[in-house]
Design a protein that fits this description.
three-stranded mixed sheet; single chain; 211 residues; 10 strands; Immunoglobulin-like
Length: 211
């Protein structure tokens, strides 16, 4: 590739590439990331969260309803005026609940997000089909299946490799690319994580084109 063509891409194409972090969480008590039980997920506006409901794979399937709640409900594992997020209820298939953190949600009654605020997800279902509608305790209390999500920045047009590394490995937690069904062990504390995928399309694009 000629240097002039590379320069053109850098000056005119790169600024148009949208940079988005992809955060994946396996919603199953046996594979739920240990780190997320104590450490909030840090996201920027424009990032995408995918909650993966794994099929049984020969194990007991866990049925769960997921809700947005306030901090008190999150800490005490109970539902009071929750906002519906999604459900894990298909035993023979792996399903996903996806959302993008937007300041203004185009979906009617959709959740809006603001920089500097923390949002909370819990499931008080027991894991059994009979207990899917339970409103207190459940997976949240007995398996700590709850998420705190801190919106820390605005949507960015580009990230350097050093910024990605610094963000993803803060607090001794390693985030790695994975396939559904695999367990990835990483981080200074040897956490078993099926975790946040922090692969940015813009970084791949620029690395592949310019280097």
């Amino acid at each position: 590739m000629s240097s002039s063509w590379a320069l053109f891409l850098l000056l005119f194409v790169a600024p148009l590439v949208s940079c988005r972090n992809y955060h994946d969480v396996m919603w199953n008590s046996k594979q739920f990331p240990v780190a997320f039980k104590t450490t909030p997920i840090k996201v920027d506006l424009g990032d995408q969260l995918t909650i993966i409901c794994p099929k049984a794979y020969g194990m007991t399937y866990e049925y769960a309803k997921l809700y947005w709640v306030g901090e008190t409900e999150w800490s005490q594992c109970w539902l009071h005026e929750p906002v519906w997020l999604g459900v894990c209820a298909t035993e023979n298939y792996t399903t996903e609940v996806k959302l993008i953190f937007r300041q203004t949600n185009p979906i009617p009654d959709g959740m809006d997000f603001q920089v500097g605020k923390t949002y909370y997800i819990i499931s008080t279902s027991t894991g059994d089909i009979e207990g899917i509608n339970q409103a207190v305790g459940g997976l949240c209390k007995y398996h700590h299946m709850k998420l705190a999500i801190s919106v820390v920045g605005y949507e960015k047009q580009s990230h350097s490799k050093s910024e990605i590394t610094e963000k993803n490995f803060a607090h001794g937690i390693g985030y790695e690319i994975h396939e559904v069904g695999q367990l990835v062990s990483s981080g200074h504390q040897n956490f078993t994580l099926l975790t946040t995928t922090s692969l940015l399309f813009c970084t791949m694009f620029l690395s592949g084109v310019l280097f």
